[in-house]
Amino acid sequence: MSQENFPAVGGDTLTACLRHWAATTPDAPALTFADFAEDPAGRRRTLSWRQLAERVDAAAGALPVSPGDRVAVLCPQGPDYVIGFLAAITAGAIAVPLFDPGLPGHAGRLTAVLADCAPSAVVTTAAARPGVEEFVGRDTAVVAVDRPEPVRTWPAPAAAPDDVAYLQYTSGSTRSPAGVVLTHANVLANVTQAVRGLGLDPAAATTVSWLPLFHDMGLVLGLITPLALGLRSVLMDPLAFIERPVRWLELLGDHAGSWSAAPNFAFHYCASRIREADRRRLRLGRVTAIVNGAEPINPDVLDRFHTAFAAAGYRPELTRPAYGLAEATVFVTTGPAATPRVTTFDRDALATGTARPAGDGVRLVACGAPAGQLVALVDPDTGVVRPDGSVGEIWVHGPNVGAGYWRKPLESTETFGARLAGDDRSWLRTGDLGVRHEGELYIAGRIKDLIIVDGRNHYPQDVEATAASADPAIRPGSVAAFAVAGTDTEAVVVVAEHRGHAELTEPAERALAAAIRRLISDAHGLALRDVLLVPPGRVPRTSSGKIARGACRDRYLAGDYGKALAR
After folding, report:
1. Binning pLDDT at 50, 70 and 90, where does residue 563 land?
2. Please, which residues have CB within 8 angstroms of residue 303's CB and are 6 or more apart in sequence?
3. Do residues 247 and 236 touch, judged by C-beta distance below 8 A?
């Protein structure tokens, strides 16, 4: 698709886009929600662009806010979430996409975020309102977007491209959540970058998503991209996906030109949980692309997914590995429409900062190249760009990069105001390590998660993969490796979830721990301080599903996992 025939976004702000599509395609479907809670088959509820705009205006008119106030979105996943988010922006406020307080395990994070953004109002649904009011207290106005009252007639404030549209709170994988300040211009630029990078044709596309709308990838995929380009968005609840992952793939097959995105675990979950009889019914030849946005991406998981769904018409080139982060709205790089490139790098060379292809070692998946933005691999200590083939911190510069963190000037300057040697432009420091090899970006891991022992770098996800290979009952993607202070140097701990932990005898557990120690010693030259096998669900994760290694380390040091087995 050439630049010349690339369809323009509907306006220069999110509100202008909504007005444009409501005026030019009023009866076209804007949003479909497949409700599996009411009907196991997924009862479809659809809003046209006109209906969506009318409901957004009604909810906006019920918000007692002034320009610049924050409005927290505490709706369950569904059309009301979309309406609440857009109503906040339409009313001239700054939306803060969050979640219903009833979401298990996230009350502490929600409390911290609400304290940080200090919303003047909250939007939710009538059904969720009692619980929301109890959670936020009486000093914050609560509006039910499905029953907005009283509704006032008022001139909707005209947004400008540089106005703040919303605060995207980070998942908190390495620090407490911080709100990324994103303008209308930032997010619309990122939509254009993502669609061009993927080579999608918006005129024949439908987005399909189960991702939480409070997460950056879920918000941009399921709400902002279709809003900007006038696409139909098909949404489902994340819980419906967890209950039966085939539902996601069925929805993809229901729409020609469908595309979606998911973290690495979703590909593994589908390949391992969807029965052969259900696979045969799928129509995945209608899919345009599925973006894998995890970092780093597990190549074995991709192979398994491609094999599992080949008979349903899915081809490897439909999987589009990508890299991104909330501070850059979401999208930074993606690969071409081709079978994902997997390169094996020498493990010892990688440990010293050089990516040298080898016959055996660490297999990494290429995440492509940037579109409409710049990416540099930088020595984090000197600010000097490192040559291709050398590991460095990923720095990003482009119109999609946020303005900073909400009311955190020092952290904003440190993260968003980096300077390359000899370059006056501001760059975003991602905190991620990567390498550029043959024109594509490969992700090595997080700087703060890096395990450094005796001057050598070890990437935790590499150690975790080795540990997981010790026993099929160790849950893939549910292992945490991290360093703790030792007597003379850092010591390494592995915590691994085991599916059958309740049935493990002490001798069997001791033998498995010894096997993990041997594998990691042979592959990485590391002597582990502790190996802990734990029941499923005990390795903490961020709100976006990533392993929270810092939180796991804290639990270990606090003694929450009990005593490790004797060596």
Report:
1. low
2. none
3. yes
Helix axes 264-273 and 246-253, enclosed angle (nearest 10): 100
Is residue 295 scored above 80 in pLDDT?
Answer: no
As a whole number, the mean pLDDT across the chain is 92
Cα gap 394→25, rounded to integer Å: 41
User: What DSSP string runs through 76-130?
Assistant: PSSHHHHHHHHHHHHTT-EEEE---TTSTT-HHHHHHHHHHH--SEEEE-TTTHH
Evaluate the omega torsion of the peptide bond into residue 101 and state whether it is cis, within 30 degrees of 0.
no
Using DSSP's 3-state secondary structure scheme, residue 428 falls into strand
DSSP-assigned beta bridge partners for residue 209? 235
For 211, which DSSP code?
S
Cβ(430)–Cβ(329) under 8 Å? no
Task: List beta partners, residue 208.
Answer: 234
Angle between helices 49-61 and 79-90 (to 10 degrees): 60
Residue carrying structure tokens 């061009």:
196
Q: How far apart are CA 68 and CA 88, in angstroms?
A: 10
Which contacts qualify for 237-240: CB closer than 8 Å, 24 or more apart? 237/35, 237/36, 237/37, 237/76, 237/77, 237/78, 237/210, 238/77, 238/210, 238/211, 238/212, 239/37, 240/34, 240/36, 240/37, 240/42, 240/210
pLDDT of residue 151: 78
